[in-house]
From TrEMBL:
Top-level taxon of origin: Eukaryota
CDD domains for this protein: S-100
Name by which UniProt lists this protein: SNTAN protein
Ranges for domain EF-hand: 62-97
InterPro entries: EF-hand-dom_pair, EF_hand_dom, S-100_dom, S100_Ca-bd_sub
Upper lineage: Eukaryota, Metazoa, Chordata, Craniata, Vertebrata
Residues in coiled coil: none
Source organism of this protein record: Thalassarche chlororhynchos (Atlantic yellow-nosed albatross)
An example molecular function term from Gene Ontology annotations: calcium-dependent protein binding
Amino acid sequence: SIPIAKQLASIKALGKGSDLEKAFATAALVYNNSADPEGKLSKAETKSLLQTQFWGFIQGQENKPKYQEIISALDEESENKIDFEDFMILLVSLTLMSDLLQEIKNVKTTK
């Protein structure tokens, strides 16, 4: 498979894109690389993708009720698949409860 950075570089519209645009494009590419031909992920695939690609944000969250609620919903045996919109909502939800978010907020932005 082609590395994400190379895929990102191939998108002409992002040549002069902002950091935020590139961040969202990266999330879309990571999702698309794992999605089925219909553009969806099974709940098991979603959980696996989060564990491999979003570990820094979910690490240490295991005992939080909201995290357990999200993960247990992914563990349910169901035919329901996750589309990109639901995946992004999931990422935002996990980011908002993450300990890493506080660390990001504390990053110095001036010299």
